[in-house]
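Attaching the record inline, Q. Sequence:
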Amino acid sequence: MPTVSTDNTSPVNKMDKPSCPASSSNAAPSLQGGRGESLCVDGACSGNPGPMEYRGVHMPSGKEVFRVGPMLGTNNIAEFLAIVHGMALMQKKGLSMPIYSDSVSGQAWVRNKKAKTTLALNPDTAEVLDLVKRAEKWLRENTFRVPILKWNTEEWGEIPADFGRK
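Structure, as predicted:
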């Protein structure tokens, strides 16, 4: 059974609707400022498939807002679920801010409202595939959208939500 934690003292739970100032700077959204408030998400998986988890980190505070896992899955599934989780949480809280992800696949799956996974359904993967099905349903049934932006790892370093397992 995966653990799901949402920190009720996190900035996302306390904030009024934040502003999202745009910037043409190449500076990373960081603890020192940069592009205003955002949610950085990341997924991690040991093996393919393997134990996977994902989380969201509020910037600029650096506080973990949510964390789910571990459960059996893949890295791309974790990245996809992290983005959708962030979107759903912001909708629930009445917030709007950009979501940064370093996953091209996760972003494409969200854009297409469909996870292009080949993970086989079996008793070990049923839980994560149920989450995928629920995420796809949420994307189809909700019009809530925020900018989903590519984290520029080459220029900015690892995304703040990174699990540090490389």
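The domain at 3-9+33-156 is CATH 3.30.420.10 (Nucleotidyltransferase; domain 5). Strands lie at 3-6, 38-45, 50-59, 64-73, 99-101, 148-150.

More tomorrow.
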